[in-house]
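Supplementary Methods. Inverse-folding protocol.

Structures were first reduced to a discrete structure-token string of length 168. This string, shown here, constituted the complete conditioning input.
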């Protein structure tokens, strides 16, 4: 489907060579050769950013480097936990805003697709949309966003995807 934008969001430096994100983007590029691919992550420093851009230059990827907003650290009595929600919101928003296609598929950087079954979702999206009530006050755009949700390091299967409206 040529009207798809794939937004890979998240960290890219799983190793010094960023090889996992490059492989994941390659996998999507093979399955969807005419799609737009956007990588939205945070700044890595010029040397590492240049290395990543060099590895991605033949894959036709729009790379967005944002300032890392950092994690939120919560404390309650003797407990402490960290949330990356600011990072997710910031880099997802920037990636979706950069997308130019009718449909946007948002993936974590440690994820990829193994088949073209996502096309079936769009062929039947009116049936899927009619199965769920939508809060009309929050629908601000005609573009659709698919959000893949699954465990880190797993592949995306269409059963784990939900269609929602892009909120501006």
């Amino acid at each position: 489907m040529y009207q798809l934008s794939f937004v890979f969001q998240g960290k890219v430096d799983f190793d010094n060579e960023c090889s996992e994100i490059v492989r994941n983007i390659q996998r999507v590029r093979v399955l969807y050769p005419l799609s737009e691919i956007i990588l939205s992550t945070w700044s890595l420093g010029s040397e590492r950013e240049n290395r990543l851009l060099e590895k991605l230059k033949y894959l036709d990827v729009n790379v967005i480097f944002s300032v890392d907003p950092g994690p939120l650290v919560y404390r309650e009595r003797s407990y402490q936990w960290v949330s990356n929600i600011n990072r997710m919101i910031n880099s997802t928003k920037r990636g979706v805003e950069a997308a130019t296609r009718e449909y946007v598929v948002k993936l974590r950087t440690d994820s990829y697709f193994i088949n073209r079954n996502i096309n079936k979702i769009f062929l039947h999206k009116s049936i899927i949309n009619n199965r769920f009530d939508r809060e009309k006050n929050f629908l601000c755009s005609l573009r659709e966003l698919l959000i893949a949700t699954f465990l880190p390091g797993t592949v995306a299967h269409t059963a784990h995807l939900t269609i929602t409206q892009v909120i501006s």
